[in-house]
Design goal:
5 helices, 0% strand
Length: 98
């Protein structure tokens, strides 16, 4: 006897990707407004947020942030996020406000 699987609404399946995309869009707006460091930090944070959601959510819940296996996705998202944050925070010449 099998239990019927509950299907998530398609919008809820893509909610994690939408959240990451919203943070990236906010980062791009900040970059366009000449606050490049803040925007880059937001993009790095979005990648780390994607890594955390990929680590915590099941494959069927992760939606479009699930590309490869869970471990590869988490390592890739987290690694790129840390690299982007490191570059944004270590470039000298401007404060975080500019």
């Amino acid at each position: 006897m099998t239990t019927p699987q509950r299907r998530r609404h398609p919008v809820l399946t893509h909610l994690p990707f939408g959240m990451v995309l919203a943070v990236v869009a906010l980062g791009l707006v900040r970059i366009l407004l000449y606050h490049w460091r803040q925007g880059t930090v937001l993009i790095g944070a979005a990648l780390i947020m994607a890594a955390a959601m990929r680590a915590l959510l099941r494959d069927d819940q992760a939606g479009l942030i699930a590309i490869r296996g869970r471990g590869v996705d988490v390592l890739t998202y987290a690694g790129l996020g840390v690299c982007v944050l490191a570059v944004a925070l270590t470039i000298e010449g401007f404060s975080l406000d500019h």
